[in-house]
Amino acid sequence: MPLSPEEPQITEMAQGPRATPAGARIAQTPRPVPGPRPAAPPRPGRPGPARPAPPVQRTRETAPAAPVAAPAPAATPQIQLIPASPDGALDAAEEAVDLLLDSGRNPGEVLVITTGEAHPWAAHELSFGDASYWAQHDAGDDVFYADAAVAARAASRPVVVVAVNGGAESAAATALSAAHGRAGALLIVCGDPQRVNSVLGAGV
User: What is the pTM of this model?
Assistant: First the structure.
């Protein structure tokens, strides 16, 4: 019989460890913490579907861009004349390019043609050979500089800038003719207005 009273005491001891479950409840408190954490990942998941939305907008932007580019070659490009001396024509062309890029133009949309001395970039790249030089042209991801002599080989671009920085009258005529045929939307000519107008009036 004395064993039976001890047994209830053991039962009470069992109730004592029930205080330990209280500690287990404390352990359960951190469990809800990870619960909200998985809830957090779904939130980034929600922006995830928003990511496809921008591509749709890009597609919408690309769709109108294609029709605009299509009529451009058929239409005559807008011509803008920037008065400059032969010595300052190259600097004026550089400023024009900077303004174009600042306004949002992609570098690959711009072609610069010189009538006299080659642009330093073109001279530098040509020092590595024609293959390397024209490979950068074909990549179409940056502004491309060409001399009047090779301008006819350049592909059409939305914007063409001509620096009338010297050279023979025939070089200017060749450069302006090539530029006019390759400018999709805008042709910028930096040079002496009288000389430019005389060349343009010659049937460019």
Answer: 0.62
